[in-house]
Specification:
With 81 residues, the protein is mostly helical. The chain is built from 4 helices and no strands.
Amino acid sequence: MLIRHDTPLDRLIDNEQRRELYNEVMKLNPSYREIIILFHYCDLSLNEIANITGSTYGASKTLIFRARKKLKIRLEENHEI
């Protein structure tokens, strides 16, 4: 079992990580940004996203994969020493 101490420092770090993630999402190209927001922030399924965007389930699945990959690369670049 993971025990988490909810100290002011923990909350500060958590808020900073969320802010960094949000900023990087907003820097993505529009199609990547849209699918990340719809899937992760609006909690829509890939089928729902496909209906909203007029694409297919497969296209939405590919797009979310590529968007996450791009986001991961950007976040890793921010933390290189």
